[in-house]
């Protein structure tokens, strides 16, 4: 887990050297239309759970194994997905993705390369887990029909590592439209 978060942070920091002002063909519009896979649909909520807190607030207050409801946008690096797993990183909604900045034409606005200095304290890793606490072996993009910069509300248990990184072991999530 620590290795995954470290890789995410390294990828985010490396984007600073690439700059944000590249030509753009992407936007934050959902591109992954369609229904989720039948086995993954049970993890998607039909309505938004109440009491969600933003990523920074949960990072500051949640204790290990505490039940949390957290809201964030999928992103934080050029590739916020964990390949082959229902896992991805989310960023506090208070941070601006590059496409939220007028005139910025960043090619991958979900990497938040314009807010890189704020990412370490504003990111959480979400792992969708089964009833045994095992991360589901399914690509979140395909099985849950998720895309970068979508806002998700996630319910689950907080897990902290020694560096204070936050992982949410999610038992359900809601995708804001």
TrEMBL record:
Leader sequence residues: 1-22
Domain of life: Bacteria
Stated name of the protein: Uncharacterized protein
UniProt organism field: Bremerella volcania
Keywords: Signal
PROSITE patterns, per the entry: PROKAR_LIPOPROTEIN (PS51257)
């Amino acid at each position: 887990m620590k290795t995954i978060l470290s890789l995410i942070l390294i990828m985010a920091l490396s984007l600073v050297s690439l700059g944000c002002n590249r030509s753009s063909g992407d936007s934050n519009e959902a591109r992954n239309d369609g229904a989720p896979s039948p086995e993954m649909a049970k993890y998607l909520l039909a309505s938004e759970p109440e009491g969600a807190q933003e990523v920074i607030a949960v990072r500051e207050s949640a204790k290990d194994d505490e039940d949390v409801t957290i809201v964030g946008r999928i992103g934080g690096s050029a590739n916020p997905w964990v390949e082959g797993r229902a896992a991805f990183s989310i960023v506090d909604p208070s941070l601006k993705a590059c496409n939220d900045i007028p005139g910025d034409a960043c090619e991958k606005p979900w990497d938040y390369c314009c807010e890189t200095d704020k990412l370490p304290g504003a990111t959480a890793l979400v792992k969708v887990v089964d009833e045994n606490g095992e991360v589901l072996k399914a690509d979140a993009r395909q099985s849950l029909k998720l895309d970068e910069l979508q806002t998700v509300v996630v319910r689950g248990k907080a897990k902290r590592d020694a560096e204070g990184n936050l992982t949410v072991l999610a038992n359900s999530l809601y995708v804001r439209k």
